[in-house]
Design a protein that fits this description.
By secondary structure, the chain is mainly beta. The chain folds into 2 domains: 219 residues, no CATH class; 146 residues, Alpha-Beta Horseshoe (Leucine-rich repeat, LRR (right-handed beta-alpha superhelix)). It is 7% helix and 22% strand. It has 3 helices and 32 strands. The longest helix has 20 residues.
Length: 425
């Protein structure tokens, strides 16, 4: 019997023994139960040679197999959303493996890692004391196949696997945990099957080479910082199953050029597109009622905004330093404009404030020095300090229905403002 065949029989036998010995001993998702399973094969991380991972020839003998790993249809794009089948593969020389009650992992010398089983991959931690057992091999892992049967991908599954460039996720998976693939800086694309309904915080954070993502059509929310720092990401289509986009979900995606937000989305969190410097236009659907703090701040190429008809509030610094914006039409559903909402929007030439607005925050229009004139509606009962800071004598502020500033307005509302003020306009 060849060594590889012998190994497969041995692993199956040991896995069976493990299941019998652990039956009824508690939750299989806990790290406590994992300590009762068999130990990984005793091969150090230094044994995983980078030169072997680049070889193409295979040699074998009755004494020792040195077969190279192969993968058929290994890229994420081959995962069909209509009918999923595990890709064909052949593992090379195994350098480490371990069996738990619900799953088994195997890693070969060429960086191919296969995770199989029926159940959940439990959560791991971020420290060396509770990290995954393959964490020491993280810089050698290049391709990961998660086989059909795995239901849940736990936290920190492949954190900091900087050489990982391909992941296959089967349609049996329903959730992806926090930080599962964070800082996988070589990962270029990912397809998340329609079986997945939730993706945790920071799941793909700082995957700096990630260019293409296909999201599940069953996804309910995109959690906080999920794709933050994915600096190569260019376009994103959010499926119409998504109802919430969490804080910082796409922050500092500096190459993001376009994203569609469907009408199913009811909440867009703060800092979601912060520093997306190449984003040029955005359409906010009618389903969204609040633009949160810094949602589009420092989107320096943003030149077009289309507000939904149900937006009621524009948050602090929501469009701060959007230096390419030239005009804004605020819908008549808006009642409040937050502090520094348009601060530093130096290219805006016109902005219409609807009669529905009742409050304007600190520095809301500071630095908007290319606006010829602006009209404050009669219904505005609250204006904070320095709203028009930096405005020049060539600009005009028209104030409707008032002969002077009411007592409810801050006394410094026109501080540092040289614009002409016309009352009872």
């Amino acid at each position: 019997m060849k060594k590889q065949q012998f190994f497969k029989v041995l692993v199956c036998s040991m896995a069976l023994c493990t299941v019998f010995s652990l039956c009824g001993c508690g939750d299989s998702d806990s790290n406590e139960s994992s300590s009762q399973t068999k130990a990984p094969t005793t091969v150090s991380a230094s044994d995983v040679s980078s030169s072997d991972s680049g070889s193409t020839a295979a040699e074998s003998s009755p004494e020792e197999s040195t077969e190279e790993s192969t993968l058929v249809e290994s890229s994420a794009e081959v995962v069909s959303k209509e009918e999923y089948k595990d890709p064909e593969y052949t593992l090379g020389t195994i350098v480490a493996s371990e069996t738990y009650p619900d799953f088994t992992w195997e890693l070969d010398k060429n960086g191919l890692m296969v995770i199989s089983g029926n159940g959940d991959i439990f959560d791991f931690g971020s420290s060396r004391f509770d990290a995954s057992p393959w964490y020491e091999y993280r810089n050698s892992i290049k391709t990961v196949i998660i086989k059909k049967g795995i239901r849940r991908i736990g936290k920190h599954l492949l954190t900091e696997c900087e050489s990982l460039d391909s992941i296959i996720i089967p349609d049996s998976v329903i959730s992806i945990g926090e930080f599962a693939f964070s800082e996988c800086s070589s990962l270029k694309s990912i397809t998340i099957p329609d079986s997945v309904t939730s993706i945790g915080k920071f799941a793909f954070d700082k995957c700096s080479s990630l260019k293409s993502i296909t999201l599940s059509n069953s996804l309910k929310s995109i959690d906080s910082s999920c794709f933050g720092g994915c600096t190569d990401l260019e376009y994103v289509t959010i499926p119409d199953s998504v109802e919430k986009i969490g804080d910082c979900a796409f922050y500092e995606c500096t190459n993001l050029k376009g994203i569609n937000i469907p009408n199913s989305v009811e909440k867009i969190g703060g800092d979601v597109f912060y520093k997306c410097a190449n984003l040029t236009n955005i359409i906010i659907p009618d389903s969204v009622s609040i633009i949160e703090e810094r949602t589009f701040a420092l989107c320096t190429s943003l030149n077009s905004i289309s507000f939904g008809n149900n937006v009621t509030s524009i948050g602090k610094f929501a469009f701060g330093n959007c230096k390419s914006l030239t005009s804004i039409t605020i819908p008549d559903s808006v009642t409040s404009i937050g502090d520094s909402a348009f601060n530093g929007c130096e290219s805006i030439t016109s902005i219409d404030i609807p009669d529905s607005v009742t409050s304007i925050g600190y520095h809301a229009f500071t630095g908007c020095t290319k606006i010829t004139d602006i009209t404050i509606p009669s219904g505005v009962t609250s204006i904070k300090d320095n709203v028009f800071n930096g405005w020049t004598s060539s600009q005009t502020i028209y104030i409707k229905g008032k002969s002077e500033a009411p007592s409810e307005w801050n006394k410094g509302w026109d501080n540092e403002c040289d614009a002409k003020i016309v009352w009872n306009a």
